[in-house]
Design a protein that fits this description.
A hairpin with a 2-residue loop joins strand 13 (about 235) and strand 14. The chain has one domain (about 5-270): Aldolase class I (TIM Barrel, Alpha-Beta Barrel). It is globular, with a radius of gyration of 17 Å. With about 270 residues, it is an alpha/beta fold. The two termini are about 25 Å apart. Helix 1 packs across helix 2 (about 60-75), helix 1 (about 25-40) runs parallel beside helix 8 (about 245-255) and helix 7 packs parallel to helix 8. The strands form four sheets. Strands 5-2-1-12-11-10-9-6 form an eight-stranded parallel β-sheet, with helices on both faces. Strands 3-4 form a two-stranded antiparallel sheet. The chain has a two-stranded antiparallel ribbon with strand order 7-8. The chain is built from nine helices and 14 strands.
Amino acid sequence: MEKLIITAAICGAEVTKEQNANIPYTIKEMGKEAESAYNAGASIIHLHVREDDGTPTQSLERFKACFAEIHSRCPDVIIQPSTGGAVGMNDKERLQPIYLNPAPEMATLDCGTMNFGGNDIFINTESNIINFAEEMNKRGIKPELECFDKGMIDMALRIQKKGYLKKPMHFNFVLGVVGGIGATPRDLNYLIESIPKESTYTVCAIGRYEFPMVFLSIVLGGHARVGFEDNIYLSKGVLAKSNGDLVNKVVNMSHEFGREIASPKEARKLLHIR
C-alpha cells in the first residue's frame, strides 16, 4: 500500500479561540501550528488565513506573509491555500492566493454549491469552477477537488472531459458537513467507487467523525486530513493543544495498521505535482 499523505488544515475560516484557545490567527501562530503539524508527520498544510483578530481574509499579502513564515520553519512542506475562503466572498477574492509568486504547488477547487445550513450558501457554479480550473492551469497549480457530495464528483468528471482538469485527479472527500454527504462507511465507499481508478483521494470529516473516517481511509488506501478546521478535540471532551496532536494521532493509527507516512517529497511524487 502507498505511504499515507497527511494534510493538516490548521485553522479554517470559522473556528475561533473561544472554542479552542490554540486556534491560530496571527502569522506567527500560523507558522507555529504548521510546524507542529509538520514535525508530527504532515506533508501538506491546508491554509486559510486570518487577520490578527481572527477575521477570515483572502488577502494576497496575508497569504504571502504566512507562506514565508511557514516555509522558514518547514522549508519542504507543501502549502495548499484554500480558494474556498469564507461564505459570501466573491471569485476575485477567493482566487487571490493562486497569484502568489512563485505559485503554490496545490490549491483547493470546490466542485459544487453547498447549503451550509440556515442562510449560508456556498456558491460554486459550473462557470465558477471552470474559471478557477483555468486559472490554476495557467500557473501550473495542482487542484485538490473538494467534494462534499456525490454530485460534485460528477461535476469534476464532466469538467475533466471538457479538458479543464488533467488526469490523474486528486480529490478531497469532506464528510459530515450539514448539507453534504454523511460520514458513514457506506458513504465513503460510494465516493471512492465514483472516481477514476488512477485518481488519488484524501478523506476529512467534521467533529467526532474525523478519526473514524480517517481510519477507514488509511485502511482503504486513501490519504488523511485532520486539523483545527475540521475538529478541535483529541478525544471526547479533550481539546487538542495543537494541530500536531491531531496529526500524531493519525500517525499512530497508521503505524498500528502497518502503513508508513509519506514525506513531502514522497507526497509530491504520489500526487504527480510538477
